[in-house]
Protein: Shikimate dehydrogenase (NADP(+))
Amino acid sequence: MSQKDRYAVIGNPIEHSKSPWIHAKFAEQTGEPVEYGRILGPLDGFTRGVKAFIASGGRGMNVTVPFKLEAHALADSLSPRAAKAGAVNTLAFGPDGVRGDNTDGVGLVRDTEVNLGVSLKGARVLLLGAGGAARSVVLPIFDRAPAALTIVNRTAAKAHQLVDQFARDAAESGVRFSGGGVDSVEAGQYDVIVNATAGSLDAALPDCEDTAFGAGTLAYDMMYGAQPTVFMQHAEKLGARAADGLGMLVEQAAESFFIWRGVRPDGGPVLRELRQTLAAKT
Ligand code: ATR
Structure:
């Protein structure tokens, strides 16, 4: 029997997941006795896969595509941010059952503020997309006290739904909050524009006014790859600074590690090494 506590990421497909590599680095950095593997979840057997891992002594899991909604349904209890997101990417197994959390939003916020050095406090933020990825980041963005958040989506009705869902949280946080179709983009440059659409997967550029981008804008794509995404290239042409989602991947993992171990790893050096590995593959 291994002396280490066991964790894993479950998804389908899973072979390209960088989470085992990232968590191995965190374990090394913090000295925590953590062993982290990958599990290919059967498309019709997510719950079975989780239960088998618990039965074999597993302590927690990360959950990735396509199981984040099923993980939300499976959890016995949820953090407020996971409940609002409607999706779970982190499971912790304890005496009180399965606890579900969502660390994606904190991952985005920490990458933006700590790694990229762009404070969200008082910022005007534009969020493109209104699916699961967008919903996961709304509350953590509010927590950083931006001046305004605008949600813009190809299908305006879905953005309106999110605005309704989070209206009270926005009011409590003192954030000006609105959204809809592309005509909801407000005049002037935004400080931060986040692409949370699935567009980059098929190299599609989400609709947005060019006037939203400028020299003072950080254009953040939640996707990443060896090459800059079409969204990043577009933003740079308009004079903005562009970033991909590799740092969000590392920082959401750091937050999961913190939930499990009570110790927060430093994502910076791990991100730099991961970036080099990615560049070396091109
Ligand atoms: P995820 O969990 O990754 O957010 P999702 O819930 O299916 O996935 O949401 C996908 C998001 O990407 C939606 O906002 C979708 O817009 P619609 O609601 O109009 O479908 C957006 N999206 C996907 N492909 C897009 C494209 N080519 N251009 C613009 N938006 C796109």
